[in-house]
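Internal QA ticket QA-208
Title: Verify multi-chain structure generation after dependency bump
Assignee: T.L.

Test input:
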Amino acid sequence: MTARWISARQLRQFGMLGMNCRNVDFINRYNRRSLYPLVDNKLKTKLLAQQYAVPMPGLQFVVREQHEIGHIEQQLVDRDSFVLKPAKGSGGKGILVVTGREGDDYIKSSGARIGIADIRRHMSNILAGLYSLGGATDVVIIEDLIAFDDIFAGYSHEGVPDIRIVVFRGYPVMAMLRLATHASDGKANLHQGAVGVGLALENGRCLHAVQFGRPVSVHPDTGLTLSEIRVPAWREMLVLAAKCHDMTGLGYIGTDLVLDKHLGPQLLELNARPGLAIQIANGRGLLPRLRHAEKLPDSRKWPADQRVDYVMRHFRDSDEPVS
Amino acid sequence: MNRKLTFFSVLILLALSGILTAVLRHLETGVPFLPGQERLVWLVEARIDFSATGGPVTASLSLPDEQLPGFSLFEEQAASPGYGFSILTTGDGRRAQWTRRSATGTQSLYYSAQLVETEESSVPGLEPEVVDYPVVWDDASELAAQGVLFRATELSSNPESLARELIRLLGNPAADQNTALLLSGDISRAELLMILLGRAGIPAQSVMGLYLEDARRRQELTPMVDVYSEGEWILFNPETGETGVPPNLLLWHRGGVSVLDVTGGRGSRVSFSMIRQSVPAAQLAEASDTDSIFAEIGVHRLPIEEQSMFKLLLLLPLGAVVVVFMRIIVGLRTAGTFMPVLISLAFLQTSLLPGLISFVSVVGIGLVLRGYLSRLNLLMVSRLATLIILVIFLISALSVIGYQMGYSTGMTITFFPMIIIAWTIERMSILWEEEGPFEVLAQGGGSLFVAVVAYLLMQSSLLKHLSFNFPELNLVLLALILAMGQYTGYKLTELRRFRAMDDLM
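Actual output:
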């Protein structure tokens, strides 16, 4: 039986990072305000990623003005699958995934069919700023659909399994795999009911898994055992995440990565205010590693490879040898 | 570490200077820290507006006597740059006189008086004197007046009952042609009553009274009639026939001559603002502290119109502290950062329960309407504008319904900031679609909870008294807010959020 409360003293023992501490000691101190647009605007992130050779899903086109929506079907005519998202959206809001077409209908990732009118409405909502921070006007990004690696087949219900890695001063400090469930409605947000799987930094193996803040051992929809999960191309993923710091200059970021069947690890988006739930999924607090990383050489001295090597050696979660 | 030290010493300095200033003000002016040990003082401000024609200007305003039923005059000032000012005591009572060689354009003259509430109700009256108004009436009116007087005299026994009968007859002109004829001219009931009493040989004088209500602006004088009956003056309200001086009525003007005379100006009018204050008995006793620095820099020096606004404004920091505490230390989620403070300010005007009911019902109905709007496929800006108009309709409808049902509180709903309500509905609706009704309840409930806590603090008489009389105490609140801005400990809600850590280890 889970206790109803936990004492602040215990949390401190676990080294749990609280919201206030995150904001004052890490976000305010290490993230320069002027750099925020680089991550809050996904279009800017994409252009920046191209410069730094960080792989991201390919950009198809951008819709900037309301009048372009009137004849949008011409631009969509020979695209079978695409992802439509607001450039300034947050928390996965306003993302529409089209996986196929049948006649005039578009098929969403959930299997539901929508018409071109729905797509138009969605686009005009995005342009008007419905999903953007503070309601500012926005642009629509249409990008390639990721071909998900089959390795996660059966682990995610409807939605996208993505990997969140928190990177501090260029050092990956904690990672988790987020699996959509029926309860989370295909979304990968933990507070909406997605399963969070903590990953060992040295090899990408499952450490713990939680749903709704409670430990789970199998996926609630598919029944597959979560402890067998091991993310492939792990080192490549960590290096990709570490590079995001070099690219943006932000000290404390959450990187969301996915594994493409053909293209390997891809950066999906960055977050300048990553959430705290990753600690519950890992069953450990962030603070000890953050304090440790504060004393390490900065990214100009150590390139991403070297930082990842250090992390895989020192931030170990199990006794298994480094892979 | 060093930076933290300076930061906190600045905070302590801020808080200390606030407390020290308050203590000094207390010692210097004698304003007590606790409400209660004090007398109620009304600050009444008369404002004369007229447009000067370019020549010499003389404005003369009748002033209240120093001893009045229920009040005594404590202090008076006049503020009118460029004008000579003096207070004259004439046979007709006290008058304020402003003079200037030449003036053009719109002129505003101010006179303000502080009046202390007293128990004294009887006041030495003037010598009774029968005033015979010179009126030129045509024969028909003359006959009508005689007819009315005759009827009233028949039905009465003394001057008091005669006056009462006359008021009753004048109050019902439809029943009697005579009174209908007399009132058809450009004459007020008070004037007519004075004339008729004069005809009957009964000493009477016209009185202009001012009803005192806290934080009112642009008030007018109410005409009354004093009737001398069997050795005492009895005040009549010619509209209602009530006798005696109501407790909140200030007798501004008694006697024959006019309230306001302006020569050299056109379109003159006088209006009154008032505010109720608590002033310590000690301060009333020694009225000599006016040149103290604290009296000079206090909010009390502002015109009364502004003071009543500051009464509310100085409470805002308190609400801000509550929001900061609830969000940083407790970890409550609210819809919109400072929306709860605006709601609680509105509660101050509406009082808690009616305010809560009307707010919840407006937002609730708004959410239902917003549900239909989302089907219309509108652009967001126009959807929001539609929502604002719907909210205005909704509030008007609720006010009308409330008024018809006899709740005047229905009207007070207009105190809610309309745009904020519309925006709240929009945000709540999106929240509902994206995160489900639970999140709407959590954030809406959180906002209301914070608003209620802020309201309860803001309406406590102690905190009201402190914030208005010791504005420097807000520095302490500022220090508190700054200190909480540096708090890096866990929020109360995180102790629950992270409870699963217990099992994982």
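Spot checks passed. Confidence is low (pLDDT under 50) at residues 285-289 of chain B.
Status: verified.
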